[in-house]
UniProtKB/TrEMBL annotation:
Keywords (A to Z) from UniProt: Hydrolase, Manganese, Metal-binding
Domain HD: 61-156
rRNA-binding listed as a keyword: no
Role summary: ppGpp hydrolyzing enzyme involved in starvation response.
Family: Belongs to the MESH1 family.
Catalytic reactions on record: guanosine 3',5'-bis(diphosphate) + H2O = GDP + diphosphate + H(+)
Species per Swiss-Prot/TrEMBL record: Ceratina calcarata
Designated name of the protein: Guanosine-3',5'-bis(diphosphate) 3'-pyrophosphohydrolase MESH1
Recorded name of the encoding gene: LOC108624139
Cofactor(s) this protein requires: Mn(2+)
Source taxon at top rank: Eukaryota
Amino acid sequence: MENTVSIPSVNHDPFTVVGSCTLCSRKLTEPELLSIVIKCVNFAAIKHKDQRRKDEKETPYINHPIGVANILIEEGKIHDPIVIIAALLHDTVEDTNTTFEEIENEFGTEVCNIVKEVTDDKNLPTMERKRLQIVNAPNKSHKAKLVTLADKLYNLRDLQNSVPVGWSQDRVKEYFKWSKAVIDGCRKTNFHLERQLDLIFAERVSQERELCACKKSLI
């Protein structure tokens, strides 16, 4: 019979098992960590189940947070479960009925704090939210910057592949320009992710120059 894996959650830190003394405390085993990650994927899938991306194929929205987490692991070489779980949850409060309290109770204080850092205040106008992303980017924690870089990388690749329904080329251009401003505030965080982003921006500049008679960069 296979051993059952329990997921302890103590003091809002589900990644540490607290014993009767400091020496008895320990980090989770690999099976326990895997259980939390799968629990998180399931949690995010339920929260985003009725949402779709804005591409023509109306891709299921859950593809996005899973894709962001995959970018962090495969391209960013990040294997910190706190960062990966925060990436899987990064849009749940902003785009669903999830609360920060719910995330903290389920996945711990550190994960919750990262999600807070990358969550826009939907009570603010769109342009103000975008402005604050640029202003706040340099002051984010290292782990929140990692999520931001992977999130922008996923979205920019999406734009390269398919323009969202209803978006004009001017809006696409502005998204690239704004994304670069946010990313510039997260520099010196992860060479691998920033390199991929710079390649995207370089390709965009090249495309713009081909279309622009004066050959000036629009990013």
